[in-house]
Amino acid sequence: MVGRVAALLALLAALALYYALHDRLWNASTWWDIAFVSLVVIPACFGLVWLVLPLQRGRGLLAAGAAFGVLAWAFHVAGWNTAENFSKLFGITAVGFAFLSYFEALSWVVLVALIIPWVDAYSVWRGPTKVIVTKHEHVFSDFSVAFPIPGERSGANLGLPDLMFFALFLAAAARFRLRPAWTWLLMVLSFDATLALAVWRNLGGLPALPLLALGFLLANGDLIWTQLRRGADARR
Hints:
It is built from ten helices and two strands; from the N terminus they run αααααααββααα. The chain is mainly α. It has a two-stranded antiparallel ribbon with strand order 1-2. α4 packs across α8 and α8 runs parallel beside α10.
């Protein structure tokens, strides 16, 4: 546990330094920027979620999420963008961990993984998310986590619901004895793929949850099927 805490603090310090100095770093081409954000920045940020995974069964997670939310608001008012960003990341991770406690069976998680991609796709293409992104960009910025591009003031953003489901699926993989490491890796790659597709197709944004849910299911499909069949046999 001490090693995890030390790794968490070291990674957080490195990320805070990058966030503070990113606009003064090299300025590369678009696809080099996408490669760096996808292969370095995004995995490093979600490395923080991996390192706090043992807390997913802890008490007071919703209260912790609310406390981080208040901190994020205070940092936003103060103009401390880096602190605000990581407060949102830790806060929504705590909420995702907490929500898993309401899922009594693995089948519930699978059902959510099958439903949310359709809801997210509708929201991004025709629903409230599209309205927010196109007409109220500042609102999306407030309710998302940023992954800055080196040499620029802009960056990629993921909405808080995307991060919440990342935490929920990762915690589910640990709780139901699936494959947490593979789950983490494929879900991170799903965000990378969504970002690359959005840039390639020159889109303002793409729904991130379809590929996220697919990553969870691909990492654990055989184990999920085995557990669901055992559960069905036990009920006979």
